[in-house]
Amino acid sequence: MEFWFSELHTPNFTIKVKVKRTLEVRKTPYQELAVLETLDFGRMLVLDGIIQTTEADEFIYHEMITHVPMFSHPSPETVLVIGAGDGGVVREVLRHPSVRKVDHVEIDEAVTEAARRWLPTISAALDDPRVTQHFTDGVEWVRRAARTRGGVYDVILVDSTDPLGPAVGLFGPVFYGNCRKALRPGGVLTVQSESPWFTRRAMLRSFHGIRRAFPLARLYTAHVPTYSTFTWSFTIGTDGVDPLTAAVPDPLPFETRYYTPALHRAAFVLPAFVERLVAAPEPDDLKAELDAEVASEKGV
Ligand code: AG3
Question: What is the pLDDT of residues 181-225, one digit of tens each?
């Protein structure tokens, strides 16, 4: 018999992956979690029916969400990682020798438990003494950190699920504003900002939210085979330092499998339709939504 996992994107488009074995399926307090053993991608983590990561292609996403911002900062020491319960981002952050402290804030402890159990190559670095794990809400964490004068972090990385369920607040302009305040001078924020295909609206929400909160915002992309339509976007916000002109060490101080100094710059070169999407002013309905969220936070 054959068993297939299918991820439904629209009623008309699915990704189908052949499954060898189901390792775990459970309902957590926040979402439905599955770890499946696949034939072509190794073990695969699925949350609420959406593929989050696989052993075979996780390096692409984890290197690109991490090294582009980390090498855009001259010497990142304190890093906040939000979401990323599987530990992949933390693993990549710790490869930077300047890093002294990582706060890892994940809302759903069950994701980390499953990763520790089934995905050791991704989660192993979570035991590093530089890492403190906090199983709590990232939105609230950043709200509190934003009250510290002068900021707390050099880099904030947001590796969230799609903006449904527990991750909604991580796509809001108020959250991005607090990230800015939680960063030290010269600090850098990077978030996974969805795909320019089926989740275009979420991509623009992240991009414009960050553009409102930061003097400089740029979108970059990478190609992740197990994410819908391959092309995945990330948005980086800085207080003016341009990631395009960052002094990326060449050769790199450690070995990578996807990220290179040349790709650091190339990733910002966007296909024309994506460039047009981000160059256009905020669409009216999105603008109204973002304005309303900012106003409600201020109690207006
Ligand atoms: N980060 C999830 C990226 C979003 C995937 N969404 C999708 N394919 N529709 C996952 C955690 C990786 N550490």
Answer: 999 999 999 999 999 999 999 999 999 999 999 999 999 999 999
Q: Which residues pair with 190 in a beta bridge?
A: 157, 236
Residue 240, sorted as left (phi over 0), alpha (psi -120 to 50) or beta, turns out to be left
Residue showing tokens 């996974």: 192
- Tell me, using a 6 A CB cutoff, whether residue 192 lines ligand 1: yes
Determine the Cα–Cα distance for residues 202 and 204; give it in Å rounded to an integer. 5
| pTM score of the predicted model | 0.97
The rounded Å distance from CA 229 to ligand 1 centre is 13
The beta strands (E) that lie in the chain are given as 3-10, 13-27, 32-38, 43-47, 50-54, 78-83, 101-105, 131-134, 153-159, 183-192, 216-223, 231-238
Q: Which of 161, 168, 198 to mutate to test the pocket of ligand 1 (most atoms within 8 A of CB)?
A: 161
Going from the N-terminus, what domains does the chain have, and what CATH number goes with each?
3-53 (2.30.140.10), 58-298 (3.40.50.150)
